[in-house]
Amino acid sequence: MARALRFFELNTGAQIPSVALGTWQADPGVVGYAVATAIKVGYRHIDCAQAYGNQEEIGAVLKKLFDDGVVKREDLWITSKLWCTDHDPEDVPKALDKTLKDLQLDYLDLYLIHWPVSMRRGSVGFKSENLTHPNITNTWRAMETLYESGKARAIGVSNFSTKKLGDLLEVARIPPAVNQVECHPSWQQPKLREFCQSKGVHLSGYSPLGSPGTTSLKSEVLKNPILNTVAEKLGKSAAQVALRWGLQMGHSVLPKSTSEGRIKENLEVFDWSIPNDLFPKLFEIEQARLVKGSPFVHETFGAYKTIKELWDGEL
After folding, report:
1. What is the β-pairing status of strands 21-22 and 45-47?
2. Distance CA 306, CA 300 (A)
3. Do 200 and 279 contact (CB within 8 A), yes or no?
4. pLDDT tens per residue, range 131-148
5. Rg of the chain over CA atoms, in angstroms?
6. What is the pLDDT of residues 46-67, one digit of tens each?
7. Nearest to 62 by CA among 84, 77, 83, 81
8. DSSP class per residue in 32-64
C-alpha cells in the first residue's frame, strides 16, 4: 500500500498539506474559479503572493466558501509572500496587514520572504535602478515579530540558495520553517534539499511541472522522455509522476492550473507510488534551472552583479 504523503510536518509542529494550488500567473477573473474548484475537489493548501496581483479575488472567493460552509478556515493552509519593496522592518507588518485585508483573513499559515532581493519602497515592476541592497537579518527580525504575534503561524523564505539559507540560520532566533524554491524532475536541487533536511527546514517546490502554462519560461519538463516512460509504465500522466516524485522526495508541491480537469488530476497522487525499480530512473534526467531571477541582477544596481551571485553558484 502506497504511503499517501498528504502532509509534511514543519519545525513548528504544524502539518503542511503536501499538494497546493499555485496561483502565480493565474489571471484575475480566472484565479477565483481555480481556487473555488480546487477547494471543492479537496485541496486544502493555496499558495499566494502579493506580487501575483490576484489576492483580492482569492480573498473574495475564500470568504464565499467560508460563508457557504464549503470549508472552514482552520481546515485550509494559506501561504503568502513579502514582496521585495517591503523589506524595511517597518514595512513588513504593513505588507502582511495588506495581504490579510486582501485575502479577508485574520492570519496566514505561512508567510515567506519572496526573494533575497530588495527594491525601493513603492516601486513598481522590475526596473534595475530600483534594486537596493537587502538586509535579510533585519527583515527576518520583523518576520519573527509577526510569527510571535500569531498573524503568521509559520515564517520562511523563498528562492534562497544553500548559502543564503545557511547565513540566515546563523542569525535567526526563530529558524525558517520553509524554503520555497523551483523544484521538479528537471531541477532536483540535491545540494539544497540535503541541506534543508539536515537543518529541519521543509523544502516546498514551486513550478513542480516546470510551469507549462507560462509564456516567460520555455519548459520541456513534462515532455521529458524518461518521465514519460515512467508515466506510461504506471498508467499515469507525466504531471502526476512529476508531482508524486516530489512527494516521495519529501517536498510539498505547488502545481498551478486553471483547468478543472488538471486541477483534479494533480490531486490524484496519494493512493499509488513510483516503485523502487523506476524511481532511480528519474535521477537520470538532464538538469536545468528555469527561473533564473534575471531582473534582480545588474552590474551597477542592487546586490547581485551576476545570476551566479544570486544563486551562489547553484546553477
Report:
1. parallel
2. 11
3. no
4. 889 999 999 999 999 999
5. 19
6. 999 988 888 999 999 999 999 9
7. 77
8. HHHHHHHHHHT--EEE--GGGT-HHHHHHHHHH
The number of CA neighbours under 13 Å toward the Cβ of 303 is 18
φ, ψ (nearest 5 deg) of residue 185: -60, -20
End-to-end CA distance of the chain: 37
Angle, alpha carbons 32-176-78 (nearest 5°): 15
Question: What does the DSSP 8-state code read for residue 148?
Answer: H
Beta strand 118-119 with 202-206 is unpaired
CA distances to 59, 79, 262 from 93, rounded to whole Å, are 19, 16, 36
The Cα 35–Cα 43 span in angstroms is: 9
3-class DSSP assignment, residue 240:
helix
pLDDT tens by residue, 185-238: 999 999 999 999 999 999 999 988 886 444 444 567 888 999 999 999 999 999
* φ, ψ at 103 (rounded to 5°): -85, -5
Grid coordinates representing 246 are 516530489
| 253 in Cβ contact with 246 (< 8 Å) | yes
How far, in Å, CA of 66 to CA of 196, rounded? 35
Separation in Å, CA 295 to CA 125, 128, 272: 10, 7, 40
Looking at the annotation, which residues are catalytic? 52
Q: How is residue 58 written as a grid cell?
A: 482569492
Phi, psi of 21 (to 5 degrees): -85, 120
d(C-alpha 59, C-alpha 50), whole Å:
12
